[in-house]
Design a protein that fits this description.
Helices cover 38% and strands 19% of the residues. It is an alpha/beta fold. The chain has a domain of 211 residues: 3-Layer(aba) Sandwich (Rossmann fold). The strands form two sheets. It has an eight-stranded mixed beta sheet, sandwiched between helices. The chain has a two-stranded antiparallel sheet with strand order 7-8. The longest helix is centred in the C-terminal third of the chain and has 29 residues. It is globular, with a radius of gyration of 19 Å. The two termini are 22 Å apart.
Length: 309
Amino acid sequence: MDTSQYKSNFVNVNGIRLHYLDWGGNVPVLLFLTGLGNSAYIYGEFAPRFNDKFHVIALTRRGHGDSDYPETGYDADTLTEDVRQFMDSLEIDKAVFVGHSMSYVELCHFAALHPERVLKLVFLDAAIDRTSPIFKTMVEKNPLRNIEIPGVNDDHYSIEDYVASIKKNYPSLAAVWCDVMYEDLLHVVKKNSEGKIVDKMSDSIGQAVNTTLNSYQPEDSKIQAPVLSIYAINSSDYYLSPDYMTHEQKVLVIEYFDRIRPPLQRELMEQFRRSVPHARIVEIPNGHHYCFIKHDELVFDEMRKFLLG
């Protein structure tokens, strides 16, 4: 299958312009939503594998990628209304929704507000209640918060140097770096007036998005549609840096990711299971957050069984 064949287009909805990719196919629509900081291009290799059975589309939310960057509208209601109006503009009555990470907000809220328009839901390491004390404990215990990364704020004037710095500074991203990560990056950064590579997303927008992500109270119990929720249980392999971590820091990272974090992740997973007892739960041991890239065959097979079963 030639995954490069897609239509890149825009729609004007809810007072802004949103970008999307369309790989074609027949109904029903399989609509992909992205995680924080990503654009529709992040699904460039994975999403089109489903267009033999679905009409496959990926949407870039406001403040991301090639979509508009208004200073407001990053609350759950507005983000979800963007999705609804996007569907209306393309005359999509119902869809199967697939969401990674942050898109838990839109998918969960959309399913609560418009259950009649949701055929099925797939959460890709997304169904996590970030308001839960369990999650807050997981964040507080993460030693990476206290490890200074040398040169993380250095300026870069070429994409190549910028990519090299990402891969050096963030081992978890280096572990999954590939053509779609590079392509996605090209749509979420820009050169400023000084020629420096910077994020398109401003600090104020980033703060607004993170505020919504970390304050959204999940409405899991309102979900009526069939659900597949895939969880990546992390391991230290993806987070150890040979470049700047001391031996003591590596010991803390190994202890956290291999012993402290997994039980907390499973508690969050069980919390979701209790709220959505009809959900199919899949756990990926030693999993990566970008599970649809690092563990693409496993995720594809699980989704295929769920969607066509």
